[in-house]
Design brief:
Oligomer: single chain
Number of helices: 9
Shape: globular
Strand order of the largest sheet: 5-2-1-9-18
Radius of gyration: 21 Å
Helix content: 25-40%
Structural class: alpha/beta
Largest sheet: 5 strands, parallel
Length: 373
């Protein structure tokens, strides 16, 4: 971590979004004693790698939500950013409030369906209750269909089967291979083997065509899921793990010429938004060629802050280089598979490193708070 940097009164960094990138940036600014404001529409940080476990294990949800105010005190502001005035260097909130910046870090992340992501600005208490309610529904359902076989979908199916081996769990995925395309073929095959060993029924290379008729995350006996191959599956519950979208609403208007097709911001090698010296994009909303992961977002946050410090000290900027892929997939608390720097790693390493508690301890440590037991 850096020492204190001498800054004049004009320096004020605004971070929009309190995900993994946002909190890494906030902590790094704090270590340099640089004035900043972190803005998020929720009152707490969500450790979403633990969201799927929180959907099946009662009491786990409270470990995945960490209040911002305790960590960032007056540097935290709860609110929704609706626009950015680049000329005046102002961030505009939904309630009409305006926050001025000398430097801006956009860390708005991505959103997707509950339970993998938390929708909108729910309070910490409400979020915990939403997961606890889902735990009860999963307990009750005899048959569950998980839609989507990316990393969230495979982990969701494995979590349910680990805690409830007698339930009928079906995973439907539009592609033949599971999880991330950048994973080694042996890792993707290993995921498939683990799911089959756990008794998950795999329907691969099929797309659900009646998604709009299905009720998500609720018990509804004899719901019919239909695929494009004519397959019909009767189920009591559907959990959707597809459809991740970049959260671009805060900046889409101000940066319409710097947007990639998916709404992410085009950045240079220093993570500066194209054509802007004092605006950075990190995490999911930065158009960097690497899988969207919490781990990468954290690295981005540190590089962006170091570059702000280097700019203030008139030093040369740090280049962000995407490394070779490291991804650990937790397949329930007693299994897992993944790769580290391009090498296949098996169950023992992944269980020790991640599966037991899904790295929640790491976020509590980073937020400098004590996790509940």
């Amino acid at each position: 971590m850096g020492g204190t940097v001498s800054v004049d009164g004009s320096v004020h960094v605004v971070i929009v979004g309190g995900g993994f990138g946002g909190i890494a940036a906030g902590n790094h600014l704090k270590s340099y004693s640089i004035p900043f404001t972190l803005i998020d529409m929720k009152d707490s940080f969500h450790h979403n790698p633990g969201a799927l476990r929180a959907s099946v294990e009662s009491g786990f949800a409270k470990k995945t939500l960490i209040p911002f105010a305790k960590t960032f005190a007056n540097n935290f502001k709860q609110g929704k950013v609706i626009d950015i005035d680049l000329e005046k260097q102002d961030v505009i909130l939904e309630n009409g409030e305006i926050v001025h910046f000398s430097h801006l870090i956009l860390a708005t992340g991505s959103s997707g369906p509950f339970p993998g992501k938390l929708v909108e600005a729910v309070t910490m208490e409400n979020a915990i209750q939403m997961y606890e309610d889902l735990v009860e529904k999963v307990q009750e359902a005899q048959r569950v269909v998980v839609i989507g076989g990316g990393s969230a979908g495979v982990e969701m199916a494995a979590e349910i089967k680990t805690d409830y081996p007698s339930k009928e769990v079906t995973l439907i995925h539009s592609k033949i291979a599971l999880a991330d395309v950048q994973l080694l073929p042996s890792v993707r095959q290993g995921l498939k083997d683990i799911l089959l060993q756990k008794g998950v029924v795999l329907q691969l290379g099929q797309k659900v065509i009646n998604l709009q008729d299905l009720v998500m995350n609720e018990i509804q006996n004899n719901m019919k899921v239909v695929t494009d191959k004519g397959l019909e599956i009767m189920t009591d519950m559907v959990i959707c793990c597809t459809g991740i979208k970049i959260n671009s609403s805060a900046y889409a208007n101000a940066f319409k010429n710097q947007l990639a097709e998916n709404g992410a911001l085009l950045v240079n090698e220093y993570l500066q938004v194209n054509g802007m010296e004092n605006v950075y994009a990190i995490g999911d909303c930065a158009d960097v060629k690497e899988p969207k992961m919490a781990y990468h977002a954290g690295l981005h946050g540190v590089v962006a802050v170091d570059n702000i410090v280097n700019t203030l000290g008139k030093k040369s900027l740090k280049v962000y280089k995407p490394g070779s892929l490291t991804m650990l997939l937790s397949m329930g608390r007693n299994n897992g598979i993944g790769q580290i720097n391009g090498w296949h790693v098996g169950k023992f390493v992944v269980v020790m490193a991640k599966s037991k508690d899904l790295l929640v301890w790491k976020s509590w440590k980073e937020m400098d708070q004590t996790a509940p037991h």
